[in-house]
Amino acid sequence: MNDKDFNLLDEPWIRVIDKDCGIHEVSLIGLFEDAHVYRDLCGELPTQDFAVLRLLLAVLHTVFSRYDENGDERLLEDSDDALERWKELWENRKFPMEVITEYLESQRENFYLFHPERPFYQCEHAKAGTEYSASKLNGNLSESSNKLRLFTDISGKAKEEMTFAEAARWLLYVNAYDDTSAKPSGEARKQGIKLPSVGVGWLGKLGIIFVTGENLFETLMLNLIMVNENEELLGKEMPVWERKKIADGERTQIPVPDNLSELYTLQSRRLYLKRKEKKVTGYYLLGGDFFDREFNTGAGFLEPMTIWKNPDNKKTDVYIPRRHDGSKQFWRDCPVAVLGDKGNRQPGIILWIKNLEERDWIKNYDLNLKIVSVQYGDKDFFVTNVFSDSLQMHASLLSDMNVSWRNMVLDSIGFCDTVAKKIWSLAKDINLSSGGSNSTKESKGTSVFFAENVKADFYNRIDGPFRRWLYGLNPEPDSDDRLYHEKEEWRRQCVGIARELGNEIIRQAGAAAIFGRTKSGSEDGKSGDTFSAASAMNRFLSGLTAAEKG
User: Fold this and answer.
1) Whose CA is closest to 352, among 460, 451, 241, 210?
2) Which residues pair with 282 in a beta bridge?
């Protein structure tokens, strides 16, 4: 990189979608200027959008920790000052561009994708690391030389090179979510240096959760957390591009950042793009900065956009990020992810939104919570899946005034799980009645495998109805009658869907299941056990009735 090229402030590289579903590429300055016009980010993957979102938030945190909405230099004095500044920005309904542009222009040299000294999010030292092609840089492929994707919508030359705009987006993505397949530098291997394990990129370790608004301005503002969960000011903002010296060490353990712009621009990897003429053809990669992922109540919980879990079941006050389960709908994790339960902590973003709602700054706001996740296989050595999900609810559900409504939602989710277990038992017994087996010597145990599939079908059937029911809840303090009605309404819907599915299983079971059978072997249960569809259905219906009344 002997010359400067492709400055992210001016060149279009961030993909957005407008209110008419048109997709555009815009520059960094252009995005902030028209954030109130665009509906959302619209990159190649939702996980990529989140990596870009963190960069945008880092800019906003840096600017508005130092300047007010009028562009006057005024450091935040206390938490009230920080919250008032947020409110003034929110009520303006669009970003004050003069102050943002002035700051970004002061950092222009640090936003060149290609630069002889400070290429954006890169360091030349990475050339000592593992070399990859453009197909590995592309998160839609994550394709290395020894692992090819059989079914992709990208082929030929498109896999071998990408535009500078594409490379800029995927540069953020790889830094955030890279797997653990990269090898140490050749020099480290020669010297026999054993380097500490970095693990996957920081965002790959999280159970990511954030908020989206009616437009991109609202999304950025709702996630612009100006104080911590104790309503204290954050540390002095220090994004990576303001570092006087680019880190060039390999796999460096650093202290946990005390400010969000530093955290959001964490260099989990040392990267260096390869280019040929006006295309990026690959990159070099080394391990980068990392810190201990364990947090305790004394150290605080700066990372606001993750679910937390206590690995010791409350034996200690240590928590670690909890990754999402791709096999579960987001609402099924609502007790942990949003509303909080006894063994987990609420994410910082939820506590922030709760703070805004209780101040009536987003009163009657329809909250759209979103999760994204990259899933890995074999000790995080390669990517296996990328997924996202969302959930809509009224922000007032988070208020302390509506704790009885939150408990009702938790109870309703628990009721779904209770009914799902009964569906599972019914499906298992009917499969056994028609000749299935419990034997684990057979593939996955035929009856258990069948029951798991039916249970998944049940959750899929109640998915839409539950989301509509949850979104329709508009809590009112001291409205016990209405709360009871909403709870009973959902139980009625849930049981109705379960009964319909149970009847379908019976109809498809065939004559053998109706007559049933008596087992003589020991693998499927005690000798003499009798299985029949009729008895299974009777147990199922009586169990549903008892659960609904419970």
Assistant:
1) 210
2) 133, 274
Whether the CB-CB separation of 26 and 34 falls below 8 Å is answered with: yes
3-state secondary structure of 162: strand
Gap between the Cα atoms of 461 and 463, Å rounded: 6
Least reliable range by pLDDT among 13-22, 441-450, 518-527: 518-527
pTM of the model: 0.91
- Residue 500: Cβ within 10 Å count: 10
Closest-CA residue to 24 (of 164, 227, 165): 165
Q: Are 199 and 205 within 8 A, CB to CB?
A: yes
Q: Which residue intervals of 370-525 are DSSP H helices?
A: 403-433, 446-472, 480-509, 511-515
Q: What is the pLDDT of residues 276-314, one digit of tens each?
A: 989 999 999 999 998 877 776 544 678 999 998 887 766
**pLDDT digit string (tens) for 347-367?**
999 999 999 999 999 988 999
Closest among 375, 199, 381 to 290, alpha carbons compared:
199
Strand partners, 212: 368
The vertex-175 CA angle with 170 and 179, nearest 5°, equals 100
**AA letter at 550:** G
Tokens 């208020």 identify what position? 399
Sign of the CA dihedral 484, 490, 496, 501? negative
Distance, CA of 425 to CA of 439 (rounded, Å): 16
Q: Which of the four pLDDT bands, split at 50, 70 and 90, describes residue 55?
A: very high
Question: Radius of gyration over alpha carbons of the chain, in Å?
Answer: 27
